[in-house]
Amino acid sequence: MAASLLTLLDDITLLADDIAVMSKVAAKKTAGVLGDDIALNANQVTGFSPSRELPVVWSVAKGSALNKVILVPIALMLVAFAPWSLTPLLMVGGAFLCFEGAEKVLHKLLHSKEEDRQHHTELVSHLQMSPEQLLAAEKDKVKGAIRTDFILSAEIVAISLGTMQGAPLMTQAAVLVAISILFTIGVYLVVAGVVKLDDLGLYLSSGATSARQAIGRFLLWMTPYLMKGLSILGTAAMFLVGGGIIVHGFPVLHHFVENAEHKAHELPTVGNILAAGAPVLFNILIGFAVGAVIVGLVHLYRKSFRKGMVAH
I need a surface site. Which of 8, 13, 113, 153 has the fewest CB within 10 A? Predict the structure, then answer.
C-alpha cells in the first residue's frame, strides 16, 4: 500500500514537472501573440465613457475566458481524433483577421469627405443616444472584441499544442488550461491599466506636489498618443498574426520566408536585423494582400446582393 502511494506521488511529481517545463516553452512561443492580443484588445475597448471602461474590459475578459473554455476541449478532441483539421481551421481564422485589418486600412485610405461628414453626424448622434441605445452600442463593440479574441485565443492554443507534440493528452490538457488562465488574467489586467491611464493622469495632475502634477500632465499628454499607437499596432497585429497563419499553412510561402531569412543572415553588419525583420514584414504584407482580396470579394458580393434586392 505504502509503495503504491509513493509510486503515485512520484508519477504526480513527474507530471507536474512536465507541465511546468512545457508551460514555460509554450509561454515563450506565444509571447508574440500575447503582445498582439494586448494591443488589439486595448484598441477594441476604447471609446467608452470613463465609468464604463472597466465594466467593458471585464465583459470582454469574461468572453475571452469563455472562448478558451470552448477552444481547449475542441482542440484536444481534434488532436485526438482529427489532427489534420487544425491547420485549415486556423487559416480560416487567420483570413478573418486579415479581412478585419484590411477593412480598417482601406476604409481610412478610400473614404470620402461625405463619409467624414456621416461619421461626424454619427458621433454627434452617439452623444445624444439614450442609455438603452448606448448599452446596445456597447454590447456590439464587446461582441466584436470577443470575436477577435476568439481567433487570437485559437492561435495561442494551436501554438501551445505545437510545442507539445507527442506529449500525453493529460499533460497537453493541463498546459493548455494553465496557459489559458495565465494569458487571460495577464492580458486584461494590462488592458485595464492602459484604458485607465488618463484617469490616473487626471488624478495625479491635481496632486499636492509639483512632481505628482508633472507626472499627471505627462500621462494626460501621452495617453492619446499611446492609444493611437495601440490602434496602429492592433491593426498591424491583425496582419502579422493572420498573415503568419496563412504563411505557415502554405509550405511554398513558409519555405520562401525561411530562405529569405537565411539569405539576410549572410549579409554583413545588418544581417541579423534584416533576418529578424524579414519574416515580420512578409507576414504583414501577405496578411494585407489576403485581407484586401477578401474585402474586394465581400464588396462585390454586397454590391451584387443589393442589385438583386432592387431588381426584385
Answer: 113
Q: Is 166 left (phi over 0), alpha (psi -120 to 50) or beta?
A: left
- In this prediction, residues 43-55 reach a mean pLDDT of 70
Q: Percent of the chain scored above 90 by pLDDT? A: 5
Which class for 89: exposed (0-12), middle (13-18), buried (19 or more C-beta within 10 A)? Answer: middle
First to last CA, the chain: 80
Average pLDDT of 50-75? 86
H-assigned helices in the chain: 2-29, 31-44, 50-81, 86-110, 113-127, 131-162, 169-195, 197-205, 210-249, 251-265, 271-311
Buried b (16+ CB within 10 A) or exposed e, 43-67: bbbbebeeeebeebbebbbebbbeb
- Fill in the amino acid letter for 211: A
- Residues 6 or more apart whose CB falls under 8 angstroms from that of 298 comprise 99
CA–CA dist 299, 11 (Å, integer): 57
Q: What is the DSSP letter of 47?
A: S
Identify which of 239, 87, 64 has the alpha carbon closest to the alpha carbon of residue 162.
87
DSSP code at position 168: -
Cα–Cα distance measured from residue 8 to residue 10, given in angstroms and rounded to the nearest whole number:
5
User: What is d(CA 44, CA 142) in angstroms, rounded to the nearest whole number?
Assistant: 8
Domain definitions of the chain by residue range: 2-232
pLDDT at site 223: 80
Q: Are 219 and 201 in contact (CB under 8 A)?
A: yes
8 Å CB contact between 45 and 191: yes
